[in-house]
Write a structure and sequence with these properties.
This protein has twelve helices and seven strands. It is an alpha+beta fold.
């Protein structure tokens, strides 16, 4: 039995103390360039700042440990815009769901070594924006920095500058495209959904997620992600009593509903259970 599995079974430990106690296990999962002490402090800080997140973690430590294992395998900081720790309601109570964020997806692109920079920006109503595929290499985005209010979000775009100086495909999504993505995200209208708490970040993530189809990402991390999700699910589910958020978030069949880059359930960030 692994020490993380033991942590799941030990229900009288607080989530923060569990993270600290089993930091060594996470250190093994983390890439060598990530400092385990700092990584754990960031995760603990996220729990302490958000009472609903702390409640969710206390309700089901297995879900918390699964989310943190997911983040650790990717080498992303849990509780930041690299990797969200989000409360979600499952069977009438809050539990933790881990969601890779747009900054995490960008980080994975950088690790592949082909991109020198990744640009993702939201275009607001008062901004100037011009881009025509085939004519322009990159978009022109003009911001009125003196404006008191830039207005509503209307577009989002993303592209990468490769190390050889070339520009990747440019992804541009309008509000209608974003609305379609949001509608396909179950639970997007939940009070805890990032679509409500941080809509700009979700617009950016939508564009970066599309960009990932065109910008090289680390094959090591793609393979590791699929393996890690399967292992985390099997290990945690074996010790948790009854169905957990892990069983909803990380299915063992790794079918079409799993993003091959991030390992997350496609467009199902917050699945609200009616019970």
């Amino acid at each position: 039995m692994s020490t993380i599995a033991n942590a799941v079974a030990t229900r009288d430990n607080s989530p923060a103390s569990m993270i600290e106690q089993y930091k060594g296990d996470f250190a093994i999962m983390l890439p060598s360039h990530v400092n385990a002490d700092q990584w754990a402090r960031v995760a603990i800080g996220a729990l302490r700042r958000d009472s609903k997140l702390a409640e969710a973690a206390n309700n089901n430590p297995a879900a918390l440990m699964g989310a943190l294992s997911h983040a650790a395998r990717l080498g992303l900081e849990a509780g930041t815009e690299q990797f969200y720790l989000t409360p979600r309601k499952y069977k009438g109570r809050l539990e933790v769901l881990g969601i890779p964020g747009y900054q995490g997806l960008v980080e994975l692109m950088y690790r592949a070594g082909a991109a020198s920079s990744v640009i993702a920006e939201v275009v607001y109503a008062s901004d100037g924006f011009d881009y025509q595929p085939g004519r322009d290499e990159r978009p022109t985005h003009v911001i009125d920095w003196d404006a008191d209010d830039r207005g509503a979000m209307r577009l989002v775009y993303a592209y990468a500058v490769m190390k050889d100086g070339a520009t990747s495909r440019v992804v541009v999504l309008n509000r209608q495209a974003i609305d379609r993505i949001k509608r396909s995200s179950q639970g997007a209208d939940s009070d805890y959904s990032p679509w409500r708490t941080n809509p700009e970040a979700m617009w950016l993530k939508s564009a970066v997620r599309q960009l990932a189809k065109w910008v090289p990402t680390s094959a090591e991390y793609r393979k590791e992600q699929i393996r890690a999700v399967q292992e985390a699910h099997a290990e945690m589910a074996a010790k948790a009593s009854g169905p957990t958020v892990l069983e909803q978030t990380f299915p063992t069949d790794m079918g079409a509903d799993i993003d091959p880059l991030t390992g997350e359930v496609l467009d199902a960030e917050l699945v609200e259970d009616p019970a």
